[in-house]
Amino acid sequence: MANTDQPRACETTIQSDHATLGVSFELSQSSWVLTTRLPGSAKMSRHSLKAGDTVRALALLQTQRSRAERQIGGAVQIVSIQEAGLDGFWVHRWLEAHIVESHVVDAASIAAPRLKRRAKSDGIDGETQLRTLSAWQRGEPRVCSMVAVPSVAEEDRRQVSRERAQLISERIALTNRICGLLASQGVRDFDPLKRGRRQQLETLETGDGRALPRHLKAEITRMLKRLELLMEQIAEVEAERDALLKAQTADETSPAALLLRLCGIGPECASVLWLECLYRQFTNRRQVAAYAGLAPSPWRSGSIQREQGISKSGNPRLRKLLIELAWLWLRYQPGS
C-alpha cells in the first residue's frame, strides 16, 4: 500500500500571486480521463484520451493553462491529483518534470457516499478528486491522505526485498505441491529442500511397497528442476540485499546499521524495515502505525463502543514484518 502523510499548513497553501488550474487524472489501462477546473470557476470539464498518450495530455494542459491565463490576465499554476494505482509513480514524475505540481492520493482515504447503490464513473471520480484536492489545499484536516512519493532510487531498492518475498512464496508453493503429491502415495519423509533430493527420489517407494509411478516421478523431477532454479535466484537476491546493507552500514548512524545492532534482527528484517519504512521521515508514532496498518479502528456511536482491531490499511509487507518482530523480540529479549 502507499505511504501517506497528513497535510500540513505550510505544504498545502497555494501562493497568492498564482491562480490555480486544477486537474485530476483517472488512469486505466485503456484510457485516461482528465477533469479540469479553471481558476474561479465551479464548472468542470472532462477530456478523454488514450492511455499513455503524454504528448496529447501535455498539449491539453498547455491549452487549458493558456485559456485560464487569458481569462484572469496573469500567470496560472497547474496542480494535479491522481490515485495511487497500477501506473505507479511514473505519471507523477512526468508531470513534475513539466512544471506541474502533482499529488498522489490514497484512494481509500477519499470520503465516498454511503448509499447501498451509488453511481460510479471515471467522470464522477475525477470530479471527486478535484473537490478533494481543493479541500486538502485549504488545509482541511483528515480530508485525505497524500502519498509520500519515493525517489527513483528508493523505489528501485525496494524491489530487492519484494522480489525475495515473491520467490520465497513460489518456493513454498512448489515444495507443498511436491510433498502433497508424494503424500497421496504414502510417502511422508521426503524433503525437497535437502541436498541429495534427486538421489532420494530414485529410491522412494509408495506406502504399499511399490515404486513411484513413472509419470508422477517425471513430474516431480521437473518440479525439482524449477525448485533448484528458485533456490539459485533466492541466493542471488540475498547477495544483492547483503551488498546494499554493507554499503549502508559504512555509515554507523544509518537506519540499517542501527537496526543490525539489535538482538533478534537480521539482514532480512533490517533491509525490509529500512527499504519499506525508514527511507523516509515520520512526524510521530501515529503516522508510523497508520502507514503500517497497525492503527486501531474504534467503533463508537452513542452507547455503542467496540474495537474492530487494527486497520490493515497500510503497507502489508511492513505490517507482516512488525508482527513477526514482536514475537522475535519476546523470544530473544524476554526481559526487555
Describe this structure in words.
The protein is α/β, with parallel strands linked by helices and 336 residues long. It is 49% helix and 16% strand. α5 packs antiparallel against α7 (214-249) and α9 (267-276) runs antiparallel to α11 (316-332). It has a 5-stranded mixed β-sheet, with helices on both faces. The protein has a two-stranded antiparallel sheet with strand order 1-7. The protein has a two-stranded antiparallel ribbon with strand order 8-9. The two termini are 31 Å apart. Mean pLDDT is 90; it is low at 6-17. β8 (296-301) and β9 (304-310) form a beta hairpin. The chain is built from 11 helices and 9 strands. It has helices spanning 9-12, 54-72, 90-97, 122-137, 152-183, 197-203, 214-249, 255-260, 267-276, 285-292, 316-332; strands at 4-5, 19-27, 31-37, 44-50, 76-83, 101-105, 146-147, 296-301, 304-310. It is elongated.
What general form does the structure show? elongated
Spell out the helices and strands N to C: EHEEEHEHEHEHHHHHHEEH
Reported for the largest beta sheet, the result is: 5 strands, mixed
Numbering strands along the chain, what is their spatial order in the largest sheet? 4-3-2-5-6
Structural class label: alpha/beta
Helical proportion, percent range: 40-55%
Determine the number of helices (DSSP H or I, runs of at least 4 residues).
11
How would you classify the quaternary structure? single chain
Radius of gyration: 26 Å
Strand portion: 15-25%
Unreliable residue stretches: 6-17
Tally of strands: 9
- Summed over residues and divided by their number, the pLDDT gives a mean of 90
Distance between the termini: 31 Å
